[in-house]
Amino acid sequence: MRIRPRIALVLLTALAGSLVATPADAAPAYPFRDPRLSVERRVDDLLGRLTLDEKISLLHQYQPAIPRLGIDRFKTGTEALHGLAWSTDVNSTPDPGAVRTATATVFPQSVGLGSTWDPKLIERVGSVVGDETRGYNSVDPDVWGLNTWAPVVNLLRDPRWGRNEEGYSEDAYLTGVISTAYAGGMSGPDPRHLKTAPTLKHYLANNNEVMRDRTSSNLRPRVKREYDELAFKPAIENDAATGVMAAYNLANGRPMTVSPDLDDVVRTWTDQELMNVTDAGNPNNLTGSQAYYPTLAEADAATLKAGVDSFTVDNTNGTPTTDAVKAALAQGLLAVSDVDDAVRHILTIRVRLGEFDPGGGPYGDITMDVVNSPSSRRLARQAAGEAMVLLKNSRGALPLSGSAKKVAVVGPLADTLYTDWYSGRMPYQVTPRAGITERLGGAGTVTGNEAVDRIALREAGSGRYVTAGSGVDGANLTVGGTAAGATEQFDVFDWGQGVLTLRSVANGKYVERADYGATSPFVNRAPQPRDWFVQQQFTLEDAGDGTFVIKYVGFETPNDWEGPNNYLTVAADGTLVLGSPDAAGAARFTKETLSSGVDSAVAAVTGADAAVVVVGSMPFINGREDHDRTTMALAESQSALIRAVQKANPHTVVVVENSYPTTLNWEQDNVPAILWTTHAGQETGHAIADVLFGDVNPAGRVTQTWYRSDADLPSILDYDIIKAGRTYQYFDGTPLYAFGHGLSYSEFRYGTARATQRHGVVEVRVPVTNTSRRAGDEVVQLYTHQRTSRDPQPNQSLRAFDRVHLRAGETRTVTLRVPVRDLAHWDVTRGRWVVETSTYDLLVGASSSDIRTRSSVRVNGETIPPRDLTRTTRAVDFDDYAGIDLVDTSKVRGESVGATMGAWVSFRNSDLRHATSFTARVAGGAGTIEVRLDGPTGPLVGTATFAGTADKYAYTQVSAGLRKADGRHDVFLVFGGNLRVDTFTVR
């Protein structure tokens, strides 16, 4: 792991001197304003000056001013996922939840940034994001706060996750490297001051949107320690990030908002003070959807005691939070010291941000001049180019040669760039076709179109056309047109599974629902599908008689806000409105196809030297926050378009622009070249052209396994990557594209890997040669595999990588290092990390499936002894299981096994030592625990009977005698009933 650079002491001294270059008689009014003092002394001083009410007021996201001390308002939470995005507007009325969107540099989505495998580049990106955040803060600190909520480090174990675009990788090590670089760039190199204060999202195991505030992620100890936690640790450990955001979900039965891990685990990773925050609205979920506490006083007290410092809830209204905390103090649920601890964490971050320094500290002079600077635009283009992954390139299809004078660019994303929920507003846009046109210049011609159907809709009864407004803001759609003129024409964008958007030809705007009324009209005014409730989605349902009904599908369920109606009808005045709860009462329409998207695409590509088909996703529709995907497939119409274009022109290149792995099986078998990019921001078109024409030699690598079928995946709610065979580490199937895959226009030869082990580090040196005539980057990847172990081990684990640039013909020896301690896994028998004595294979190559050279080392570590069940054993420390959930032992801490009838857990290689008794701590419903040997139906050696407890948290002890329990066996506990098991012993 690369440690963040620190600026030299002499520079720090100079900076500090410049901050206090004031006359001797102009000393700071208070010690907390004196930058010559340590952060700790300044915080102590300020904390001591605050009244209890003032301290409590600082616990809400919107921290009010304290005029008597000259302290301004402070807001936590500015979104900055891949550029400065939006922020809740503290001054907005009448809607305090409204947001302002920044026009700032938009970099590739996070999964694209991860695909660069280039930490140095990512640190530069993070630095620009930090600068631009500072620039906006200088204009309006009430809106653009310096506590940034980024990066997202949740692991991308399931590509159907709606927020896949927000994470970096399915691998914890790669995620840790990239997130440390991004957060380090945002926070800056000064060890005492922060440019911004990055907060890692969303701790922990938050990787599904379905019922995200009610589902509990089952994290067996190995998965929790070896996988989920390891993604969060590096950025905290290297002082790149300043806290974590507690996730919406529960883990092992306890809401993450009150997880003791926020203190007991996260704060142990650093000596710095952290400021942890809740996710938006999550404190109220504790008494609402999660029903975990009966009162807000109890909930907020538990949240503070667990390690959360700042409550993100109730928009700008801090009164419910402050009232609840005061009530908790009065009831003895909290001590003043608990409040002091949280406020100390908050004030530490504010001091480090330079708020109380003269001039705002070393970053206080950053202004709006930095936003969208020429250097930022160049970096955006470089990042977009480095993020692109060449998935396939056969028969030299790419780069496009100088003979490609006529290029056709077609597809629904050819002329469009989309933003996503956490994107800023692009200062300018270079679309794929525009980028390719600019690249060819006068040397050729570019033709093409969006390849979508253009239609008109006629109401079946009257025969009149649906008509839209021609002005920039559109107008309510009506049924009244007598001919299919421009105001009656709509372009149909098909996003798969029947979901369509309609763009009015009259003004280029999308049709959306006009308001939240039960009989809302529709208006053509949206620049793109957008907003939390995406109100621009429709399906056309066949009515069975040659007509269609139009269903509005802008909400996940029919009764969110809009009332019972989902189908469109025609009002008495001709306005198109929501007017029917079902298809039977809906208006019927005929559809006239004025031009076929496929036909227009085929016409454009026929005879072209090259055909570029740009397909992909709409980030607000094809999965996003609160909406998981149900398939990894392209939209059906996009697949049909690719096939038609490929048939018309064999020189076809497919550019897939989306945010997740896609099942491109036919395309891989039939299309000469496939290039994948995320929604890559303002410079997308330039970057695509750079790669297609060879000005940039692609070196991006996928950071997730690309599966061949949805059937390769278990339930999205299954978090056990070991048992379920998830990610490249445990998947035993054949992926479409393996983790780390990506092609280049250069060829690279790997020499023999040489491994040494000394001073606790395994070092692998391998010569890599660029054997081609073109300079290029190679991402050299080192994986390990442990040959022998007590426990199931990953097929491979990424341990190190290096993106190296090699000139044509150049050879460079790449050195990759792995600390031996990083080879450890979590030993459930003793509850600690262990490096086992074993031979470790060292696999070096261009991807997890393209290993070019290998070596091995023998590591002398430990041998895990047989289980000693005479010691108190946690039931969750099992080796295998079936039918169980992991649940909370109490609302404060602890994890238990939640059993159902016939469920079991096993404890392998246990030394029974003539055992004669079994004792367990259990709670919940009545039932039995059978102790069996060597299998869930193996020999029964004892049965404990449990009468049940009234409270699931009220544990009692049950016992049973054992017979013929001797020697070493796999011990199985088989459950007969719905009960909870905390710990047990066998003696």
User: What is the CA-CA span between the terminal residues?
Assistant: 44 Å
Q: Tell me the major beta sheet.
A: 6 strands, mixed
Q: Helical amount among residues, as a percent range?
A: 10-25%
Can you tell me the overall shape? globular
Supply the helix-strand structural class: alpha+beta
Radius of gyration: 30 Å
Low-confidence spans: 1-25, 556-561
The oligomeric state is single chain
Q: Report the count of strand segments.
A: 50
What would the average pLDDT be, to the nearest integer?
95
Q: Name the CATH homologous superfamily of the largest domain.
A: Glycoside hydrolase, family 3, N-terminal domain
**What's the architecture of the largest domain, going by CATH?**
Alpha-Beta Barrel
β content, as a range?
25-35%
Number of helices: 20
Structure summarized in a few sentences:
By secondary structure, the chain is α+β, with helices and mostly antiparallel strands.
Jot down its keywords.
987 residues; alpha+beta; TIM Barrel; Rossmann fold; Trefoil (Acidic Fibroblast Growth Factor, subunit A); six-stranded mixed β-sheet; 20 helices; 28% strand; disordered N terminus
How would you portray this structure in words?
The protein has 987 residues and is α+β, with helices and mostly antiparallel strands. It folds into five domains: 337 residues, TIM Barrel; 198 residues, Glycoside hydrolase family 3 C-terminal domain (Rossmann fold), CATH 3.40.50; 127 residues, Trefoil (Acidic Fibroblast Growth Factor, subunit A) (Trefoil); 114 residues, Immunoglobulins (Immunoglobulin-like, Sandwich); 114 residues, Galactose-binding domain-like (Jelly Rolls, Sandwich). The strands form 14 sheets. The protein has a six-stranded mixed beta sheet. Strands 12-29-28-27-13-14 form a six-stranded mixed beta sheet, sandwiched between helices. Strand 28, helix 17 and strand 29 form a beta-alpha-beta unit. The radius of gyration is 30 Å and the shape is globular. This is Exo-alpha-(1->6)-L-arabinopyranosidase. Pfam families: CBM_6, Fn3-like, Glyco_hydro_3, Glyco_hydro_3_C. Keywords: Hydrolase, Signal. GO terms for molecular function: alpha-L-arabinofuranosidase activity; beta-glucosidase activity; carbohydrate binding; xylan 1,4-beta-xylosidase activity. Belongs to the glycosyl hydrolase 3 family.
